Amino acid sequence: MGEQSHTMNSTPQPPVDTDGPEPAGRAIVTFGRGWHSLAVVRSLAARGVEVISADVYGLTPGALSKGAQDSFTYPDPAETPERFLDVLESEIRARRPDDDRPYVLQPVQQETYLISKHRQRFEGLIDLALPEHELLDRVRDKGELASMASSLGLKVPPTHRFDARPTADELAEIEVPATSAWLVSIVTKSWPRPLTGSTKNTAPCR
């Protein structure tokens, strides 16, 4: 398969109701292939927001939704993060409203961390529906997230942290009460992930 073209659609779709009120704002929602992204598209559209769906692929639930006014594609952020950022910034500039209506970027999937890390590229161009990078960086480690949640008095599954993938014997030593409604969270060091930078993953014990 040849390399995809990452350009703005030449014939953007018109608003569904051209005689209705002006859109309450404009939002770009990433990871259009995800059902959770589709839920965001539908929710924003129901509130009068003009939604633009974006993804690595062109045919996605988000792009095909009635709630999306338009869509575009971008390079895979996991494979070419710099190209992803370049294309995203270009699309954001090209689609910026001419008036002062709200203009928001809503990342949905793993590209959230990458965008947050480079948020200075987008500040002043579009509002980011993201926490500060320092906060996001703090909770991306699932072990640290569990510890922080526990310190705040929140209920979390019993969490066991390992420096490497646990062996069958190590897993067998973890006690899970038969009446427990909780899964046990197993947090291990994993391979470096170029997109998220995360070094942890989790797996349920049962």
Explained architecture:
The protein has 206 residues and is of the alpha/beta class. It has 7 helices and 8 strands, in the order βαβαβαβαβααβαββ. The protein has a 5-stranded parallel sheet. The longest helix is centred in the middle third of the chain and has 14 residues, at 81-94. It starts with 24 loop residues before the first strand and ends with a strand. Mean pLDDT is 79; it is low at 7-18 and 190-206.
Describe what is shown at a glance.
This protein has 206 residues and is an alpha/beta fold.
Radius of gyration: 20 Å
Give a short account of the largest sheet. 5 strands, parallel
Helix content: 25-40%
- The first-to-last residue Cα distance is 40 Å
The residue ranges in which pLDDT falls below 50 over 5 or more consecutive positions are 7-18, 190-206
* H and E string: EHEHEHEHEHHEHEE
Give the overall shape: elongated
- Give the strand order of the largest sheet, numbering strands 1, 2, ... along the chain: 3-2-1-4-5
Q: Work out the number of β strands.
A: 8
What is the average of the pLDDT values?
A: 79
Q: How much beta, percentage-wise?
A: 15-25%
